[in-house]
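Fold these two proteins, one after the other.
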Amino acid sequence: MPDVQTLEAFSPTVLAADLIWQQHMLADFFAGLAPADWERPTEKGGWTLRQTVAHLASVAGLYHQALEAALNGTPLKVAGVSVQDDLLDFNKQQIAQRADTPPEALVKELFQWLDTAAERTSSLNASQLSLTVDLFAYNRPITVAELLGGQIAHPGLVHAAQLANGVGSKPLWNRYPPDFLNRQLTRFFGLMSHAYWLKRAGSRVASANLRVRGGGSWHIIMNPQGGDWGEGLAAHPSVTYWFTSADAMCCALTFQVDPLRAMFTGKALAYGNLILGLQMPSLFLT
């Protein structure tokens, strides 16, 4: 695992500033919604926009619990869940618990946790940022720095297309400055590596490089210990993905575009172990 404190995306000052900026951007987005928008589907057969925000609020609260557990040196205990397989049920339960919560209250809950994370970040030192906690959804302990990064990347990139789909607009990452989007991708790959599904992958040992034309590069390593990740390229990758733009990469990573379609339309290339390349989406939590 990389020393995330050496990466700009996980600098305390940058994390705090990005938490605030992300919240302001989301506030502008939510302010432009009509009442009917909240019940529109964000994906075919998927959640409504209100359910998506309920999910974002619940995960932000979960990240806060994990953060406090890591800083206090205590185990994270979440009722009814203990392993990765429990994640889907956890998400359903959390959304159901908020079924009667008005949209404005869901947004307030989400912003409360983003505010709390921003305030907490400014007071943390290097040793605190490197503390870890076991979180049931992930395959290995996650650091405080990565949890704080997740508070930004989960609503701001993982679900950035879903939110926009609900009102028929472009994914929210199209509104981001290039440097902010680059940091979001770094945080995303950290979450992605932790979300590697060991039960599905078994004893697989492999690596993948992901590159954006004129942009950044990242790598994911898969192994029975949970794997690794980082900025830059891994030596001797099993498969390499190349994207024409950050938007094309984000669309593929968030399953807005099928990988094969991305390649057929010239927005992406893949070379190396192409069988692994096609299997990779199924090896990570969705």
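Now the second one:
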Amino acid sequence: MNNWVQYLPLLLIVFAFWLLVLRPARNRQREFMATQSSLESGVRVMLASGIFGELVAVHDNEVEIRVAPDVVLTVARQAVAKVIVPEDAPPADEPTDPPRATD
């Protein structure tokens, strides 16, 4: 019984490390991969540097982003931090009600 109790603090430290470090990192990695897979032309995005723009073209390792009229930047695909969802669009997880017919 005493041998098992000796390892309890070590097990608690390993569990706390997993809970506080490894699990959130894995969740961030999943979110990043979901963002990368949802990139397509015409989508408004924010780069990791804070630059906002609209995707013009998406290639394997790089994307072209329009930041102003006649200004297109070519950046690494991993520089895209998040996809900006228009405020007037309903969230993707909420179903939209079909329009009702008026009598």
